[in-house]
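Write out the bound-state structure for adenosine-5'-triphosphate.
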Amino acid sequence: MTDLADFTARLTALTDGRASAPRLKEGVMTIALDVGGLEHDRRDGLAAAIREGALTVPGVTDVRIAMTAERKPAETPPAKAPLRILAVASGKGGVGKSTLSANLAVALHRLGLKVGLVDADIYGPSQARLMGSEDQKPQAREKKLIPVTGTLGIPMLSMAHLVEPGKALAWRGPMVGNALTQLIDAEWGETELLVVDMPPGTGDIQLTMVQKHKPAGAVIVSTPQDLALIDATRAVSLFHQAGVPMVGLVENMAGYACPHCGEVSDPFGHGGAESTAGDLSMPFLGRVPLAIDIRRRSDAGDPPAAGEGVHADAFHAIARKVADWLKASA
Ligand SMILES: Nc1ncnc2c1ncn2[C@@H]1O[C@H](COP(=O)(O)OP(=O)(O)OP(=O)(O)O)[C@@H](O)[C@H]1O
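---
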């Protein structure tokens, strides 16, 4: 290696690649040094070290360092995927929206999606219990709520995290809409998909949801019962009117297997949801059986979808269809 080549190599190491290749003419060595983003002391220190090194190269009598502030373009952070909302709704109360929302969030999380969960049932929140996060309180940063993380590592927010247990909320429509917006516009970080457990019916919260927060899609839950299906049809129509696409219909509490004799009975009828889905030209996403174990585990804050077995499988099969839909509609 010549003395100049040797110095060039040392120069690159010394300046972390900020120096140009040195030019030597009539004893004068010229080097361009990119000082973009460097503190004054560091610039001067580098220049002095370069000068000192350059003068050790045989034939160099003078050193000229041209400092340029050609800042390297800041690396653009990878574009963050927009937060999409999946509304889980029904027309009628008590059909299992909350149970499905919690288990769907868990199953989608297990499929690798970055999922968050919002309990939009402002008057009757239940997700904190279902996800075992009742004892947690969200913090706030710059007026934004920071979601709590349940035992399964899923970020979530519910009014149950903000009000005292058992305390009734006596809020009017606009306040309820604001509360929903606070939950949805929270600091969700890396979350890509918010599963939103909607309250039953077609009131203020539903309107705020469809008009202001524009869900990417809606999953409708119903029992096989005719009455529940009529209400489900009403919920579908609300989303249709607002231009929210339907992901599909889930039949909950379908078929009860007697834990003693194994006989399967259908307390709420059979197949009603699938045929209603057909009538409404929307996909049927699957059935969740009526099972004591689902209720027990839900009450204990241990969603069945977090475990294994037939009940977990039922939620996972639905979650796979939802994930496929989300992928196709992205
Ligand atoms: N498949 C199921 N098998 C057994 N119990 C179930 C099932 N689905 C839901 N439940 C139970 O039924 C009750 C109502 O369910 P859930 O709270 O999920 O319904 P919801 O539609 O969200 O009710 P609400 O309208 O009050 O918000 C709960 O006690 C729940 O544990």
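---
Residues 90, 93-99, 121, 124, 126, 200, 252-253, 288, 290-291, 294-295, 298 surround adenosine-5'-triphosphate (CB under 6 Å).
The chain has two domains: 3-68, 84-329.
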